[in-house]
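Residues determine shape. Take a concrete instance:
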Amino acid sequence: MKKVNIKETSVNHRVQEAMKSLRTNIQFCGADKKVIMLTSCISGEGKSETSLRLAMSLAELNRRVILVDTDLRRSVLLSKISYSHDGETLGLTHFLTGQASLRDVVCTTNVPNFHMILAGPFPPNPVELLSSHHFEAMITALRAAYDYIIIDTAPLGTVIDAAIVAKLCDGAILVIEAGKINRRFEFDTKLQLDKAGCPVLGAVLNKVDTKKAGYGNYYGNYYGKYYGKYYGNYVSDSAPSADAERGGSVKQR
C-alpha cells in the first residue's frame, strides 16, 4: 500500500468536541451502521472537511476506518493530503475501470487505523462507474475489512451521484451551511435519500455565526476558558468569519 499524509491544520477544542459528539451519535445509531455517507445540497458547505474529521475521530477509538472519496467530479479531499512517495497514486477511478485492484488503491495514512481511497482522475462517466458491479463489490469487501466506511460524495442537490452511492450505505449525514440553503432545498435533498432507501442519521449544521445566533455569550459564560463560547460547535478551519468565529452544531435525528 502507498502512504499519504493528512496535512496538519490547527484544530481547536470545539472542533475536537464536535467530532466526538458526532461519532458518539453514530455509535448510538447501532452496530449495523458501518457504511456512512456524507453529502450536502451544494458544494462549499464543508462536507469533505467533516468527512475527514469524522473518519479520523472514529479511528481514535482504535476502530479500523477507511474514507472513500466518491466525488469523481470535483474532489476536495485531494487538497487535504500530501504524498510520501514518488509516482502515481491510484484511486477509485482506476479500480472501477479495471486498471487496478482494490489493494492497489487503498492508501495508508499517518493516522493510526485510518486508510483512504482517493478519487483518482476525473472520468467522463461518473454515474456509470458508481452504478457498476465493481463499486458494489468494493463496498462488500470493505465491510469485511473495516469497522467503519465513511464515504464522501458529490453534493446531492447538484448531481445524482450520491443517490447511487446511497443505495449501498447504512445511513447518511447531511452537512448544511447555516443561512445558505432554504428549507425546501434541504427537504428535496433528504427526499432523494429516502427514495434511495438510505436513512438519514442526522445533520451537521456548519458555519454558524455563533455571536449572531446568540450562542457565544451563553456558552462562553457557562463553560468559561475550558470549553469556549459554544460547546459542541464544528468550526470550519477553511472559512472563518472576519468578525466572528463560525461553526456548526451537531444534531441527531
In short: The chain has one domain: 12-252. The first strand starts at residue 3 and ends at 6.
